[in-house]
Automatic annotation (TrEMBL):
PANTHER family: GLUTAREDOXIN-LIKE PROTEIN C5ORF63 HOMOLOG. Keywords: Electron transport, Transport. The keyword Electron transport applies. Belongs to the glutaredoxin family. This is Glutaredoxin-like protein.
Length: 115
């Protein structure tokens, strides 16, 4: 019985180590979803709520376009927020298109598992 417990503990440690490696690997490969926003922005707040079910599949980066260092984004998107870029590429604006988001996330996830 003691031997069984020892092997179970070793198996648990091994599985936990694999789990941690997978977690850390997946965190480094998560895509970045950039939300161009300002305060207040009710549509941005609504968009963030719609994104909740996907929150573990990307890193959300918010860019306040009203800050002086973001003046280029302000000029480009002042009438269009919320605007979303995925890994630096334009994805969507005004409202979250969940089918488009899902399609692009799946594409990136498939690429990261192959590479």
């Amino acid at each position: 019985m003691l031997w069984f417990q020892g092997n179970s503990m070793q198996l648990a440690r091994s599985a936990f180590g694999l789990f941690l490696r997978n977690c850390s690997a997946s965190k480094t490969t998560l895509p970045v979803l950039t939300l161009f926003t300002k305060d207040p922005c009710p549509l941005c707040d609504e968009a963030k709520e719609v994104l909740q079910p996907y929150k573990n599949r990307f890193i959300l980066q918010e860019v306040n376009i009203t800050l002086p260092e973001n003046s280029v984004w302000y000029e480009r998107y002042k009438f269009d927020i919320p605007v979303f870029h995925l890994n630096g590429q334009f994805l969507m604006m005004h409202r979250v298109n969940t089918s488009k988001l899902e399609k692009q996330l799946l594409k990136l996830e498939q690429q990261s598992t192959r590479g």
